[in-house]
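Researcher: Please generate the 3D structure of the following complex. Treat every line as part of one assembly.
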Amino acid sequence: MEFKTATLNQLPAIVRLLADDEFGATRERYEKPLPKEYIEAFAKIEQQMGNSIIVVMVKNEVIGCLQLTLIPGISRLGTTRGQIEGVRIDKDYRGKGVGESLLRYAINEAKTMGCEMIQLTTDKKRKDAHRFYERLGFVASHEGMKLSLIN
Amino acid sequence: MEFKTATLNQLPAIVRLLADDEFGATRERYEKPLPKEYIEAFAKIEQQMGNSIIVVMVKNEVIGCLQLTLIPGISRLGTTRGQIEGVRIDKDYRGKGVGESLLRYAINEAKTMGCEMIQLTTDKKRKDAHRFYERLGFVASHEGMKLSLIN
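Model: Done. Output below.
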């Protein structure tokens, strides 16, 4: 397994993973050619300091991904948070510790870059995900609240 | 009431608000001169595209603040999220709608800058905060999980 920051070459595989998901199926469009919205979004991620997609690869194939964004802040004596979004593992590779390895890699990257806390939100319906993150030491101390601005 | 992006001039007042809080009291150091960690953190926020502290002012005094960070992402067809952290209102101005006005200003800013979703996490012990955000249309659909990297 190889862990690395994604480049545009890996974007179609990342969208495939995001679409191949209980909630993602209705939210994503994995098409050829890839919808330009994804390409534009990837460019914005690359332009923002501290924002990146990390992929895990086996034999040159993307089998997992997550987004790691470093957010410097004032609170807690100027703590930088590492925010994780969009964690996905290829169906064929689940239950083999790939997700745990990917998370541990991202946590270590965040630590190296000066983060003092990692945070994420996970849908209350994803019970398996909660147990997964709790095993990694995460504490469900907060409510994760969302407000859609569409419509 | 005036709403604006904070400059270094407002930083001591922001730290005062963060420290004057049930949980912030033990986490922050509101001292003169201001600990250099805050000044360094503020510089990092200013350097990161899409990251800012918004303050609400009355008669040239900061009476409220929050952090708004725009996070471009791949999921949901390349959605940009607006993430809110560190919402605080001066004790003397609570219960007067200042928080609601500040949030509505930040939500509108995020919308103008192309965000399709606003998200935040709030400590499960802050029951009043949950009701406040629900009144603004937020839905507590997610668990907010944190992992401390200190110690």
